[in-house]
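Running this now, will post back.
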Amino acid sequence: MLEIFIFATLNGLVTGLLLFMLASGLTLIFSMMGVLNFAHASFYMLGAYFAYSVSLYFGFWMGLIFAPLIVGVLGAVVERYGLRRVHQSGHVAELVFTFGLAFLIEEAVQFFWGPDTKNYQAPDILDFPLFTLFGQEFSAYRGFMIGISLSIFITLYHILTRSRIGIIIQAAITHPNTVANLGHNVPLIFMGVFGVGTALAGLAGVIAGPVLTTFPGMSIALGSIVFVIVVIGGLGSLAGAFIASLLIGLLQSYAIASDVGMPELLNLLGLEFERSHPLNDLWTLNLPRIAPILPFLLLVLVLIFRPTGLLGKREE
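Update: finished.
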């Protein structure tokens, strides 16, 4: 039992921190620009594919460096020549634009790379067990994923709360005209933030590609979960996104690792009914089967009891 708990916790941390790496860029973009970018997970997919292509010629580490940069530049171009013009028509137009962009990126990926799964591998230098517990190995690459994700959180939090750049960004969110009058180029700041946000999504794709496989539907697999994280954590809250990511990662990991069925859960609640009951199908369910919907159940509960999210600020 202890063995299952420890490895479920480790796997949950890996999943949660990977989700944070993806959600951090979306949180940064929303906090700065008020835009819920529906194409954010598509930039995550682009990061994996660009890294795969670069790694074929120059190795994994070059892909880790250049793929997020390429995705970030593409994101900046999208903001400058697309989203900035659409912004004049309001938030609905922005949502429709990013929604269409997601479909465009997915079709482009299939056009250039094909519909098949790519053999994108982790580097050989990280192909060894980091440690062994109870006869099970925890790979060094998963430890590398945890280290990268924690580094991103610490760096972003420090920049946004302690640095001069963070002060300017925070001021541009609430008082853009004042920041512009002080001599700062606010549109350039917006473009830079959008580029950094998409680059973070690309970095998440680079890291996740070898583990979750690189295929055209990988953006759909995580896209909805990212929005769940941002809402649960509180729109625009980086710390909230971090906590929500860990909650969802651990919740799903514990559910998958457990073998608890619906009868046991109902008994814990003091409920039971005969197998001839119309709800008899509930008896066939167990936690591993309902693990994919647990984040959405958590979202509903958070919206009912705390609509602003875990660390979201209530608007006055």
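The longest helix spans residues 2-33. More later if anyone needs it.
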